[in-house]
Amino acid sequence: MNLLSALTPAATRHRVLLSIAVLALFPLLMPFHALAINILLFGLFGAGYNLTFGYTGKLSFGHAAFYGTGAYGCGILIATHQVPWPVAIAVGMALGGLVALLIGALAIRTRGIYFAMVTLALAQCVYFAAFHATSLTGGDNGLRGVNLPALQLGSWRLDLLQPLNRYYFMLGFVAVAIWVLSRILNSPFGAVLEAIRENEQRARASGFDVERTKLLSFVISGLFCGLAGALSAINLATVGIDMLSYHTSGQVMMVTLLGGMGTFFGPFIGAGTFLAMEHALTAVTERWQLIVGLMFIGLVLFFPKGIWGSLLARIDR
Amino acid sequence: MTNPNPDALLETRGLTKRFGQFTANEGISVHIPRGQLTAIIGPNGAGKSTFFNMVSGAFAPSEGAIWFDGRDITGLAQHRFAHLGIAKSFQVTNLFPDLSVLENVRVAVQALESGFDFWRPRASRRDWIEKAERLLERVGLQDKRRFRAVRLSHGEQRALEMAVALAADPKLLLLDEPTAGMSPEETRSIMDLILALAQERTVALVEHKMKLIMGVSDSIVVLHQGRLLAQGSPDDIRANEEVRRVYLGKGAH
Amino acid sequence: MEITASLLLQQLFVGLALGAIYVLVAVGLSLIFGLLGVVNFAHGAFYMLGAYVAVYVYGLTGSFWACLLLVPLAVGLLGLLAERWLIRPLYGRGVDYPLLLTFGLAYVLVDSVRMVWGVQGEAFATPEALRGAVDVGFGVFPLYRLFLIGLCAGLLLALWLFIEKTRLGLIIRAGARDPLVLKVLGIDVGRIWLLIFGLGTALAGLAGLLAAPLRGVNPEMGGSVLIEAFVITVIGGMGSLVGAIVAGLLVGVVVAMTTLFQPEFAELAIFALMAAVLILRPNGLFGKS
């Protein structure tokens, strides 16, 4: 047993603190702070998705619906109705969970692989609805004016237009979110999710209400993704219709797969790698989609555990 | 429907299962006596596994009724069965492959408690862990508790299957070919365990090894081509002409 | 615009023609899914490829009939290669992996097409011989659409005969129930998989060719068709060919009819239909539970 595998149990126990520490140091180690925020928020999106895909084992193709709804919910409240940002974020998050409840209730009744098809189609409904509700969402042009320029508390003011400040503001939310996520994964509920992923039939035979559990995990996942969307709306000050498209669902799948399904920190590693690559490569080529496609194929054929997952597996040996 | 037989822990009336054109079980009416060891035998294709699947809630019957402990349980959702006190160990090993041996049993113990706990660490529920460890001791797997289930030998996996089924503390334990693929020593130790279990709860098992069960069963149910052929004590069955012709007559092994 | 019986009939006919294209796509998807257990997320991309191969072949030969022959062959061949080298390694690894892979494959195919032909799209004219309309007594119907429906019906009949009446079809049906049966009989399962995947993608490619004169050719055309094909599969019932046919025609008609009255709601209508099916009959109209 080498040093790394001896450290693993302790690292797992303190995974939240370690993750927050890494995320806190991250922007200080790289010059692209705006990119860092995107990575942070997409990592959160991935962590939410990971709950459904990596931990429960259900491949959903519709998670953009929760992310985008969270973004539009928060965005519309701030831009059109000048609602205070804590309320707007909370509502965005709750809407993400609500859409997950609706889509989940319909989709969970179907068997196995159909789940991917049904979630995709139902998420397209949401895309379609937002596309045509132009007075509400701006349709194809998107929603502008989701402005939160600063935090004001008496005489203390934090300028949020500075990317670094904005990063740490968002990190506050992400830190709490991953702490909650960790507790959920560690709880008896988390054990049921793993059991379902390992052997759904056995879980049912042992006495677990599998359908109810899957739906709950889906809704919780929707809440996290909705939060990521709401924060993204504030970060970018706009909400684009592409946040609801199935390409975004594909991106979060990629990020989770790349990082390592079913690992705690994997989604952030995946988000970091993916967005960094996108940042670097779209500057030199238009064939980014081709590269993403090849990455998917390569990952599935040769590298299904992803970066972090493969690393952890090596250590465990 | 008339009142169920009070001596029977489980009783079926006219239990039928069809898969499209194919009828796997037809009109099976049997009872599994309380506190006894019942063996379910029959040639291949007799429908024994289908019957077990219906009685454990995995399949919904096409027709007929199932009574358990005086209660009509026909058509209940599968996950309710463990809570009722019916547990089955599967014919093909059916565990949680990447979870540890201990976790396999611990999660089965947890399953009996309803409600969702999202917050407390699972390790804080010592009662679940202790119960799981006691069950592992019973089947002799406590030394392997940190191993991933998929790394156990075949015989050890069958033992783990048993522990997982026992985690439900079932009144009725259904064992689908528990000695399949086992060496003679493994078979002996599993049978010892089964006999010990039969002292404290009702056990029903599907088996092919005739010599094994004739000696130990209190009651025998014979299925043939999806129907009930005979039910009774081992002596009754040995004496039954039809059974001899169909099954025993082919050369008891 | 006055809604006459004649107009309704015309639009119904348009719907059936559209439905015919949907049916070809959905049947291909259903074949691959029902017999191989693979959800082919690249199915829309193969549809698009069919249209582009048609543009290429037409550019070379000037013959629509050459396209009819060569497009399914070319796209089917590509499908064979994809099955053999990309998808086959994934069997037994869990149902999600082929799905993820084909999703990536779709991106590769679409962007490759952009590389070769650009992002603008191409025009594809209705073939000379099939232009104009035919008076069938109770109405005048475009010849091309008549041809479409007829061709599709003929293909489905041929497919049905193949699966139900030939030895190879029997093998396929047996293999669908239990792949082990095939192995025991000494039949090369790999060849069957190749055949099914090739056939499924060939149908998609053919649909793309047939749709080209009606809907144009552009790299994104596969995206919406894929989603429509999924909706059709959910409505019709998973793994049911009859379901794919009925649902495909139904969806085509629904889209055409709503386009007549309220074009923006055409998509919404089929989603609403799908939601209704999911609530009332979660396994689809013809699905096996």
Written description of the protein model:
The complex is a heterotrimer of chains A (317), B (253) and C (289). Chain A has 317 residues and is mainly α. Helix content of chain A is 74%, strand content 4%. In chain A, a hairpin with a 2-residue loop joins β2 and β3. The termini of chain A are close together. By secondary structure, chain B is of the alpha/beta class. Chain B has 9 helices and 11 strands. Helices cover 75% and strands 2% of the residues of chain C. A two-stranded antiparallel ribbon of chain C has the order 1-2. The radius of gyration of chain C is 19 Å and the shape is globular. The model of chain C has no long low-confidence stretch (mean pLDDT 88). Chains A and C meet through α6, α12 and α14 of A and α4, α9 and α11 of C.
Features:
heterotrimer, B: 253 residues, alpha/beta, Rossmann fold, 2 domains, six-stranded mixed beta sheet, five-stranded antiparallel beta sheet, 9 helices, 35% helix, C: 289 residues, mainly alpha, ABC transporter involved in vitamin B12 uptake, BtuC, two-stranded antiparallel sheet, 11 helices
Please mark out the parts of chain C with pLDDT under 50 across 5 or more consecutive residues, or reply none: none
Rg of chain C, please? 19 Å
Q: SSE order of chain B in H/E notation?
A: EEEEHEEHEHHHEHEHEEHH
Shape call of chain C: globular
- The overall number of domains of chain B is 2
In a nutshell, what does this entry contain?
Chain B is α/β, with parallel strands linked by helices and about 250 residues long.
Write the layout of secondary structure elements.
The complex is a heterotrimer of chains A (317), B (253) and C (289).
Chain A: H1 3-13, H2 15-25, H3 33-55, H4 64-81, H5 85-107, H6 114-132, H7 134-137, E1 143-144, E2 150-153, E3 156-159, H8 163-186, H9 188-198, H10 200-206, H11 210-236, E4 238-239, H12 246-259, H13 266-281, H14 288-302, H15 306-316
Antiparallel strand pairs in A: 1-4, 2-3
Chain B: E1 8-19, E2 22-28, E3 31-33, E4 37-41, H1 48-55, E5 63-68, E6 71-72, H2 78-84, E7 86-89, H3 101-110, H4 126-139, H5 154-166, E8 172-176, H6 184-200, E9 202-206, H7 210-216, E10 219-224, E11 227-232, H8 234-239, H9 241-246
Parallel strand pairs in B: 4-9, 4-10, 7-8, 8-9
Antiparallel strand pairs in B: 1-2, 1-3, 1-5, 5-6, 10-11
Helix pairs in contact in B: 3-4, 3-5, 4-5
Chain C: H1 5-36, H2 43-61, H3 64-87, H4 96-117, E1 133-135, E2 140-142, H5 143-165, H6 167-177, H7 179-184, H8 189-215, H9 221-236, H10 241-261, H11 266-280
Antiparallel strand pairs in C: 1-2
Helix pairs in contact in C: 1-5, 1-8, 1-9, 1-10, 2-3, 2-4, 2-8, 2-9, 3-8, 5-6, 9-10, 9-11, 10-11
